[in-house]
Amino acid sequence: MQHVQTQADDKKKPMRAAIAAFVGTTIEWYDFYIYGLAAALVFGKVFFPATLDPGVATLLSFVTLWAGFIARPLGGVIFGHFGDRIGRKTTLVITLMLMGLSTLGIGLLPSYQSIGVLAPIGLVLLRIVQGIAVGGEWGGAVLIASENAPKNKGILYAAFAQQGSPAGNLLATLVFFLLGRMPMPEFVQWGWRIPFLLSAVLVLVGLFIRLQLSESKAMQQVMAEKKVERLPLLSVLRQHGMLVWMTMLVPTVIHVTYLKTTFALSWATSELGYGRETFLQIILWALVVQFVVQPFGAVLVSRMDKAKAILWILLPEFLLMPLMFWAISTGSYWLAVTAMCLATIPHSMFYGAIGGLLAQAFPVQLRYTGMSFSYQLCSLLIGGGTPVLAQWLLNVTGGISWVAVISGCYALVSLFSTLWLLKRIPEPDAQPAGVAHTPLAAATTAQPR
């Protein structure tokens, strides 16, 4: 009877892990995205001197946003180290608590008018803690889902963790949308703090779910066989250095989401005459589309030749992102909605597949560190800098054309780096999910198949 019960529990474990990954990442990304929305709408007014030019204040606000991205590789290294040594579950509990406390701290932080220069300093420090938390969260969540997945379903189960991003973004945007009816003075004074304070409740829910998790069998096996690496980061860089630098480029295109949300929200409401509530509604439509279509990227990559799937997914991006900027510039609500929803599809489907692919690139005893460090380096160099670069180009040129060009460059980088990666990792899911493998000796010497 006990054996039957154990078998039943084993069958439920993959879905429990997937749901726990989804709920936890939803909360983490909610916290991370509300900062971006607040940075676009109010942080320039709240945490910087009122005498600053509005464009400069917004630019500085986006720089504080970048601070979180700068900290993400540090989070990937710290929690990757412990995740590869003591397991995935413990690190995921810690990252969720860290994110919740830093987000609550931002919601309670006094304004520049109250404490002067300490306000932006405090904002940057709390944003750095957010970055460390989400930097450690992503890799662990993908792995707890993919390593517990049934055979041949690693990419599909990893997509549960990836769904937390659009879900968290959707939730964050919805909260700000509901607050959009507030008069602007009240919103700037205290209304923007509500989404940050609500995070405390969400974190408690996430902690309850994550504490029920058990460690993946793959990691249990590594610890039982004493194959744990003493310094995972050093081993990753020595054994798989080229793989790290190339996988760093793979997620580039997913960061165009900050062109659609953070940058476009600021641009549309400050220069094009869109109301705050109206443009948040446009973003909400796009996020609903992302939530619906994103898993199909994992399905497509799992069921057909992976290189062809990536080509089919990314090629439309070169047309749809410039089309989106043009549609927004017309001032037409339904044109903007349609174009933004269409532009969301390629990079969303790519994001749905990429977590599982990156997890397969590294051996299990180095997997948390390898994929987290690579992914978060991309966030540092590209993600946080995207709205800063876009706003600077807009300030300098007075037009949106170069911002559209950037989006095409992002897609090109992801396309070629992903095709490179697919030639240098073992055939995905050739073994049961989570089983350790060696990526063709060392990535630095591997040759294309």
TrEMBL record:
Q: What is the name of this protein? A: Permease of the major facilitator superfamily
* Gene Ontology terms, MF aspect: transmembrane transporter activity
Cellular compartments annotated: Cell membrane
Where's the Major facilitator superfamily (MFS) profile domain? 17-426
Q: Which InterPro entries does this one have?
A: MFS_dom, MFS_sugar_transport-like, MFS_trans_sf
Question: How does the record classify its membrane topology?
Answer: Multi-pass membrane protein
Keywords, A to Z? Cell membrane, Membrane, Transmembrane, Transmembrane helix, Transport
Highest taxon, organism lineage: Bacteria
CDD domains for this protein:
MFS_ShiA_like (cd17369)
SUPFAM superfamilies cross-referenced by the UniProt entry: MFS general substrate transporter
**What GO cellular component term, any one, is given?**
plasma membrane
According to the record, the segments passing through the membrane are 21-44, 56-79, 91-109, 115-134, 155-178, 190-209, 242-259, 279-302, 309-328, 334-361, 373-394, 400-422
